[in-house]
Amino acid sequence: MNLLTSCVAIPLVVLGITISNMSTPVSGKKLEITIANDLGNFLNLTVHCVSPAKEYDLGFQVVPYGGRYQWFAHDSSYLCDLAWHKKYGRFLIYESRRDNRRCKGWCFWRIAQEGLYLHLAKPADRDELEFTWD
Ligand SMILES: *[C@@H]1O[C@H](CO)[C@@H](O)[C@H](O)[C@H]1NC(C)=O
Questions:
Q1: Which Pfam families does the record associate with it (predicted)?
Q2: Residue 28 within any structural domain of the chain
Q3: Which domain covers residue 123, as residue numbers?
């Protein structure tokens, strides 16, 4: 854990406790965000997410093929830089107004060579290609 991560982690924990103490069971439901590496060929995925509104920086993560990176949303949006081999992109991975209804508590992104798929449960279970690489 680097210095930046530890500086960010403490306010996140404090905020999480505050929210869960104040809210009702329904509105206090946490939303989880998962980024799953499905690139194949043992390719690593580098992930760096920030919440623009409150300036949380989740730090750099290297997610191996078949691995997942996940966190609970403590802000209304997250912007992530994703990189692998020679591809790179900056994507709005979570935005509460866009995603709260369709994610239903869990925004699950599957990262593949052709692009970023979001898992959607309705009307039928499927992964929908939302973004492609430049
Ligand atoms: C992925 O990352 C691991 C750990 O840093 C490294 O050992 C491995 O060589 C990387 N794989 C590729 C395909 O670059």
A1: Self-incomp_S1
A2: no
A3: 34-131
Is residue 96 lining ligand 1, measured as CB closer than 6 Å?
no
Q: Is the pLDDT of residue 80 over 50?
A: yes
Q: Is the pLDDT of residue 44 over 60?
A: yes
Give the Å distance between the CA of 102 and the centre of ligand 1.
34
End-to-end CA distance of the chain: 31
Question: Cα 71 to chain center, whole Å?
Answer: 7
CA distance 77 to 55: 10
- Pocket flag, ligand 1, residue 83 (CB < 6 Å): no
Answer whether 41 contacts ligand 1 (Cβ < 6 A): no
Is 17 or 55 the better-scoring residue by pLDDT?
55
Residue 27 has a pLDDT of: 46
The dihedral of CA 90, 100, 104, 13: what is its sign? positive
Answer yes or no: is pLDDT of 21 > 80: no
Q: Does the residue 16 lie in any domain?
A: no
